[in-house]
Amino acid sequence: MKFITTYLSPVKWAFLSACLLSLIHVVSALTVPTLTASIINEGVLQGDLDAISRLSVAMLAASLVTVIGSLSAVYLAAHIASRVSLNLRQQLVQALQDFSLSDFSKYGTGTLLMRATRDVEKIQSVLAKGINMILPMPLMIIVGLGLTFYKSFEMGLIILSLMVIMVVLMISPPYRHGRSAAIR
Fold first, then answer.
1. Which alpha helices (DSSP H) does 6-152 contain, by range?
2. Are the beta carbons of 28 and 65 closer than 8 angstroms?
3. Contact 31, 55 (CB under 8 A)
4. pLDDT at residue 182 in the model
5. Residue 174 half-sphere exposure, CB side, CA atoms within 13 Å?
6. d(CA 133, CA 141)
7. DSSP states of 57-98 as a string?
8. Each residue's pLDDT tens digit, 132-169
9. What pLDDT does residue 161 have?
10. Which of 24, 31, 52, 67 is the most exposed place for a label (fewest CB within 10 A)?
11. Which long-range contacts (CB under 8 A, 24 or more apart) does 114-118 make?
């Protein structure tokens, strides 16, 4: 929690913008298959060329919004990660300036610099990848479930109940029958 308040507070607007752009990306990405189904159902099966043209333009627009939202979210994630790593590096420099000469002799200057640099790079990489890869997943689940309910309420209930069962199974501790095989 301290990490969030210390390092993400200065970039909170960029983080909220990345969340919004991820939501836009997910919604538009999930709109494309829906439009494809509409093209088939309303255009191809009915023989309506106007519907095919209209829905194809909508699909092209949704694809364009998907690309723009995704690229913008990636850019903001890189910006956030670089700002956080800048703050970390500044604090590391401050901490290293408080070291005595005996501390540098004990640990080695090269070792300290290598470890500090590598650790900050790892944090930066995990933060950028987390925003780009982990953040859209719950959004995709929520939006996909909403689209499923929109198309078919019964199918939405089935998928929601299966998701709840899966979560309960993942959270619950494994059932142990008697002693384990390793103890016997």
1. 12-38, 49-97, 101-107, 109-129, 136-151
2. yes
3. no
4. 53
5. 4
6. 13
7. HHHHHHHHHHHHHHHHHHHHHHHHHHHHHHHHHHHHHHHHHT
8. 888 889 889 999 999 899 989 999 999 999 999 999 98
9. 95
10. 67
11. 116/89, 116/92
The pLDDT assigned to 157 comes to: 95
**The residue to which tokens 């987390």 are assigned:** 130
Residues with Cβ within 8 Å of residue 74, at least 6 apart in sequence: 132
- Identity at 50, one-letter amino acid code: D
Structure tokens at 20: 């919004």
Q: 34: helix, coil or strand?
A: helix
Residue with tokens 């199918």: 155
Sequence-separated contacts (24+) of 133-139 with Cβ below 8 Å: 135/18, 135/19, 135/22, 136/22, 136/25, 136/26, 136/73, 139/22, 139/23, 139/26
